[in-house]
């Protein structure tokens, strides 16, 4: 009888071994599915972030063409004020209207490109209109002819400048 018991114990061990292997295999499959699900979830989160950023950028620059048109109005205000100053005084209201228009544009992300006389010419933000003889170093900005603008940090119109020869 002892032999039979030993034989049965041996059979039980053999039967349990495949069960453990099957359990391990199922755990391995479970882990693979879990990893795949976690990767897919992370990709979805990243996609949502990317889409949100893309939509925000689209909203920021959607009115870019309108703002470019309004910049021309500001330029014409500058020309009108300059002409009025030559012929006499300029009414305070004209300055107020121009300032109000500039404030509205600033609220929508428009900023003037800073240009100072003597700055080195930078083709990334300047457009050379003409080269002139000057006491300044060659390649320096002599005069700003047309103002440049950024919209939400992106250059939408370069400053038009005169450059020293």
From TrEMBL:
<dbReference type="GO" id="GO:0051087">
    <property type="term" value="F:protein-folding chaperone binding"/>
</dbReference>
<keyword id="KW-0143">Chaperone</keyword>
<keyword id="KW-0963">Cytoplasm</keyword>
<dbReference type="GO" id="GO:0042803">
    <property type="term" value="F:protein homodimerization activity"/>
</dbReference>
<feature type="region of interest" description="Disordered">
    <location>
        <begin position="1"/>
        <end position="27"/>
    </location>
</feature>
<dbReference type="InterPro" id="IPR000740">
    <property type="entry name" value="GrpE"/>
</dbReference>
<feature type="compositionally biased region" description="Polar residues">
    <location>
        <begin position="1"/>
        <end position="11"/>
    </location>
</feature>
<dbReference type="GO" id="GO:0051082">
    <property type="term" value="F:unfolded protein binding"/>
</dbReference>
<dbReference type="GO" id="GO:0000774">
    <property type="term" value="F:adenyl-nucleotide exchange factor activity"/>
</dbReference>
<comment type="similarity">
    <text>Belongs to the GrpE family.</text>
</comment>
<keyword id="KW-0346">Stress response</keyword>
<dbReference type="GO" id="GO:0006457">
    <property type="term" value="P:protein folding"/>
</dbReference>
<comment type="subunit">
    <text>Homodimer.</text>
</comment>
<dbReference type="Pfam" id="PF01025">
    <property type="entry name" value="GrpE"/>
</dbReference>
<dbReference type="InterPro" id="IPR009012">
    <property type="entry name" value="GrpE_head"/>
</dbReference>
<comment type="function">
    <text>Participates actively in the response to hyperosmotic and heat shock by preventing the aggregation of stress-denatured proteins, in association with DnaK and GrpE. It is the nucleotide exchange factor for DnaK and may function as a thermosensor. Unfolded proteins bind initially to DnaJ; upon interaction with the DnaJ-bound protein, DnaK hydrolyzes its bound ATP, resulting in the formation of a stable complex. GrpE releases ADP from DnaK; ATP binding to DnaK triggers the release of the substrate protein, thus completing the reaction cycle.</text>
</comment>
<dbReference type="GO" id="GO:0005737">
    <property type="term" value="C:cytoplasm"/>
</dbReference>
<protein>
    <recommendedName>
        <fullName>Protein GrpE</fullName>
    </recommendedName>
</protein>
<dbReference type="InterPro" id="IPR013805">
    <property type="entry name" value="GrpE_CC"/>
</dbReference>
């Amino acid at each position: 009888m002892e032999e039979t018991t030993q034989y049965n114990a041996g059979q039980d061990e053999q039967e349990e071994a495949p069960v453990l292997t099957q359990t391990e295999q199922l755990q391995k499959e479970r882990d693979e599915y879990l990893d795949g699900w976690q990767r897919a979830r992370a990709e979805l989160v990243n996609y949502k972030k990317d889409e949100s950023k893309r939509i925000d950028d689209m909203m920021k620059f959607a009115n870019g063409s309108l703002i470019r048109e309004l910049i021309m109005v500001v330029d014409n205000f500058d020309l009108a004020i300059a002409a009025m100053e030559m012929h006499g005084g300029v009414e305070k209201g004209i300055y107020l209207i121009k300032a109000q228009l500039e404030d509205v544009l600033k609220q929508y992300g428009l900023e003037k490109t800073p240009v100072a006389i003597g700055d080195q010419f930078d083709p990334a933000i300047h457009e050379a209109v003409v080269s002139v003889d000057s006491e300044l170093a060659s390649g320096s900005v002599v005069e700003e002819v047309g103002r440049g603008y950024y919209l939400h940090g992106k250059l939408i119109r370069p400053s038009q400048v005169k450059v020293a020869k």
